[in-house]
Amino acid sequence: MSELYPLKFEPIMKETIWGGSALVTRYHKKADPSVRYGESWEISGISDNLSVVSNGFLAGNNIEELIEVYMGDITGDSIYEKFGNEFPLLIKLIEAREDLSIQVHPGNEMARERHQAYGKTEMWYILESETDARIFTGFKNSVTRGKFLESLNDGNPADLLNIEYPETGDAFFTPAGRIHAIGAGVVLAEIQQTSDITYRIYDWNRKNPSGESRELHTDLALDAIDFAATGKSKIKKELIPNKTVNLVNCEFFNTNILSFDERIEKDYNMIDSFVLYICVEGEFIIRWDGNSEPVLKGETVLLPAMIKEVVLDPVPESKLLEIYIKKQLSFQPTNN
């Protein structure tokens, strides 16, 4: 069996009513800049949106096929035992030219019962933020189900939400059940569980080009919302040049930030997991076993679990997100 190497994937571009052109013009996505792209799915194990390798001898194979052949060499043995051929994380770049809908995601138990799927805990890393851009996350204060329904019927649910003003480099952690919306004027990287389940609650009375409103999922959402999820969720960490700094550490993923202008040696012998790099500024080169792979701003790379030692060379400086799984889930979806 041939040796594995750092894998890149063809981005899966998603046209949206609220998207723009930044992902194409500033983040190296090869697509028509006149189309309003809201999302680029960088790595996806969603069954009808499987990522396809774009580099090396495995180009053309999708991520499920790779895991089926290489198993724990790709994802890590303990992760493979939990998730099988399904890649456990979904990575996106998102541009919001308009406010996204107010929404919520179910947790594992509810998603398993309703959809035979995983729940969706996620985090955002802010790549760009215009002045006065907003992030809606959680409630200002605890509310009752009845009070929230009343605000929905009155057409002003956003009045109950906690609003924060993001800046480049901020992070936001959104566990399942926390109501949220990305505001206009933001570009971000999203790290989440492999799940495509979103309950849309309020869409700002927006119409599509055909004059139709998008579907809402109010009844489903009411059971999923954590009405006690309040307060600020912004994570602002001081960067230490050439040192890895943790942003989020939860049971579903561990995300670090690294800003570097000198060679960095990485040793992953102590973790049983794949590693993802998202280049958020500049560019860098991954070196391993006498080989190398360049990584540009906006690109995401999957480092297979069998590769334990790499060198990262900035060109001439770079910033990246480093993502892996520390603690595996005890939950697996069932199909019965």
Can you walk me through this structure?
Helix content is 14%, strand content 38%. The chain is mainly beta. It folds into 2 domains: 224 residues, Jelly Rolls; 81 residues, Jelly Rolls, CATH 2.60.120.10. The longest helix is centred in the middle third of the chain and has 9 residues. The model has no long low-confidence stretch (mean pLDDT 94).
Poorly predicted parts: none
Q: What is the CATH class designation of the largest domain?
A: Mainly Beta
Percentage of residues in helical conformation: 10-25%
Strand order of the largest sheet: 1-2-5-12-7-10-14
Q: What's the order of the H and E elements?
A: EHEEEHHHEEHEEHEEEEEHEEEEEEEE
Number of domains: 2
Q: How does the overall form come out from the CA principal axes?
A: globular
- Output the radius of gyration: 20 Å
Q: What is the CATH T-level topology of the largest domain?
A: Jelly Rolls
Structural class: mainly beta
